[in-house]
Specification:
By secondary structure, the chain is an alpha/beta fold. It contains ten helices and ten strands.
Length: 289
Amino acid sequence: MSAPELASPPTVLVFAATDPTGGAGLQADLLTLSSLGCHALSVVTAVTVQDTLGVEDFLPLDPEWISDQARAVLEDMPVAAFKLGMLGSVEAVQAITEIVADYPDIPLVYDPVLASSRGDELATEEMIEAVRELLLPQVTLLTPNSLEARRLVETPQEDEHGEPIEDLDDEDTPLDLDTCALRLQDMGCEFVLITGSHEHTPQVVNALYTPEGDVHTLSWDRLPDSYHGSGCTLSSAIAALLAQGIDMETAVKSAQEYTWEALRNGWRLGMGQFLPDRLFWARREGEDA
């Protein structure tokens, strides 16, 4: 008698840049999705040179290569969710927007990677403007940290030569996050989850803003270390749960729990930030056994 055929796991298509440390980027997405029971499909948007201290350089892929990678798998396999990370160029934003627009019923989770944890720039103002105009209207859930949320909604002022004007008053009084979320929703995002790890608060406070105007906040104990890939882990975890048919509020809450545990169980393998342990649950089960 043959064994019963197992149901196929839901698939999530990821657009992201590579990270040779495995801490963030495409490698982090694949590991998180697999850990949470999904099959990950991957489209490389850029190749980075980085370590656990920061990003030294990156090479965006040709937009035709991005499109060809995505179309090949989309025409071959069903996809239950999209997850976007670092996109790399204006042309990549344009190409990805055209692709996801053909699949409006598939939930899209976008983690807007605009800079590394060290502050290395990964997105130009021109690219951010393309994201605002083209991509955000397609997004089901946007997951910026507080710095990214403010950068996405604040258009820098320029002088007559096109140079940015530094406004010290604005730096001293940053835009409040409720206003940021509302502006991002006005740009087209359905849900917005702003994470508060960069805010000067006793606990990390994350807030989910819904289309109905509700705000769901969760507070987490601040961990003592700095982590590489926390945003990638959180956004991929949410995508994995949405792909399994879980509602948005539950998916966001459960993904935060998973991410906090992955960070709490992380290691410092290099000379810089800690790396999350996205298989913490499997190691626990092994220890118990």
